[in-house]
Write a structure and sequence with these properties.
Blueprint: H1 8-14, H2 17-29, H3 34-41, H4 45-57, H5 70-84, E1 88-92, H6 100-103, H7 105-113, E2 122-125, H8 129-137, E3 146-149, H9 163-174, E4 177-178, H10 189-195, H11 199-209, E5 213-217, E6 244-246, E7 249-251, H12 271-276, E8 279-283, H13 290-298, E9 304-308, H14 309-319
Parallel strand pairs: 1-9, 2-3, 2-5, 3-4, 5-8, 8-9
Antiparallel strand pairs: 6-7
Helix pairs in contact: 2-4, 3-4, 5-14, 8-9, 13-14
Length: 320
């Protein structure tokens, strides 16, 4: 019969708690080398490594990584909040494309905390690459909260425009309850008319109207984008002056609405509804988004912002 592997309790029995503590104290507080600790405790150097690891597992050691840019980032957020006239601004010190969701997780959590959500409250989720990244790796816990897509996009080939999947993923990672919107972003006139009679669609529209918060990607200027939601007629000259969009509500640099063929039948949360959301948090990163952020704020589409320090500085420079 083979011997059973040692248990964690058995491992701790080999290392008395006072020995574990002494090894950790010397290593972390006295900066003693492993050789010096081994000599003082009368153990081998490999045993010192195991003692230090056991101290961390046992909770005797707490390691804090201090953000050296925190004070600067907080001050920058305050300046941008005043400059744009927003309710709140929450910034990450730095972001990277490959880790965007995780990088923005802390500022998004701070923004959501300000919403004071309760189970049953509704929070809107837009499409877009940044919201897609947040849904995958940046969502705070939202038990019992309803997440609701703001635009159609049921069969869009681009994953960051598939709003049902974005909402489902965000709910899975946050403990929220997803609602789904089974419609294209720009349906035919006949399909749009049928949606208005559909109970499931009307349920989503009702959630839009009573939403307490929203996480809204701010799209870049239309001429700079490599893709938009399926069916949007970007070849129309109206898009030449589009500074960006929020939930497919395209706007000029001054925030005024841009209409285009089919815009009257778009499946999207309207500008008026977004303007009434108490905590409409725009999310955007990158210098290319500067006119988009300013236009979204001027148009009343967002009243708070999640971004990073570099983007904040660029926005302030543009406002100067």
């Amino acid at each position: 019969m083979s011997a059973e592997p040692p248990t964690a309790d058995a491992a701790r029995a080999r290392f008395p708690l006072d020995t574990v503590y002494q090894a950790a104290r010397m290593y972390y507080l006295e900066d003693a080398t492993q050789a010096a600790i081994a000599s003082r405790l009368g153990v081998s150097r490999p045993t010192v490594s195991r003692l230090v690891a056991e101290a961390r597992r046992a909770g005797l050691v707490r390691i804090e990584v201090v953000d050296p840019f925190r004070d600067e980032t907080v001050a920058l957020a305050g300046r941008l909040q005043v400059g744009l006239g927003l309710h709140a601004v929450h910034l990450a010190p730095v972001t990277h494309t490959a880790t965007l969701g995780a990088d923005l997780a802390a500022p998004l959590a701070a923004a959501v905390e300000g919403m004071a959500l309760q189970p049953g409250d509704a929070v809107l989720m837009s499409s877009g690459r940044t919201v897609y990244a947040l849904a995958q790796a940046g969502m705070p816990q939202l038990p019992g909260v309803q997440l609701v897509p703001t635009v159609g996009g049921q069969a869009d080939p681009m994953p960051w425009f598939q709003t049902n999947e974005i909402t489902r993923t965000a709910a899975q990672h946050s403990g929220a309850i997803p609602a789904f919107l089974f419609a294209q972003a720009l349906p035919s006139a006949a399909m749009r008319a049928s949606l208005d009679e559909d109970p499931a669609f009307q349920h989503v529209v009702g959630l839009w109207g009573r939403a307490k918060g929203a996480v809204l990607g701010i799209g870049a200027p239309a001429p700079t984008r490599d893709a938009v939601a399926r069916g949007i007629p970007v070849e129309d000259r109206a898009f030449d002056r589009a500074a960006g969009d929020v939930s497919l509500n395209f706007f000029a640099p001054d925030g005024s609405a841009i209409d285009f063929p089919g815009s009257d039948r778009m499946v999207r949360t309207s500008r008026e509804v977004l303007a009434a959301v108490p905590h409409a948090v725009g999310v955007a990163v990158g210098e290319a988004k500067v006119p988009s952020i300013i236009g979204a704020v001027c148009g009343g589409l967002v009243n708070a912002l999640v971004s990073d320090a570099a983007t904040a500085r660029a926005v302030l420079d543009a406002l100067a």
